[in-house]
Amino acid sequence: MSATYSFLDVHAAIVGVGGSFSLGSGAGAAKEGITITQTEDIDTMTIGADGQGMHTLHADKSGKVTVRLLKTSPTNALLSAMVAFQRTSGANHGNNTITIVNSTTGDAITCEQCAFSRIPDITYAQEADVIQWVFNSVTINVGLGAGL
Question: Fewer CB within 10 Å, N- or C-terminus of the chain?
Answer without folding.
Answer: N
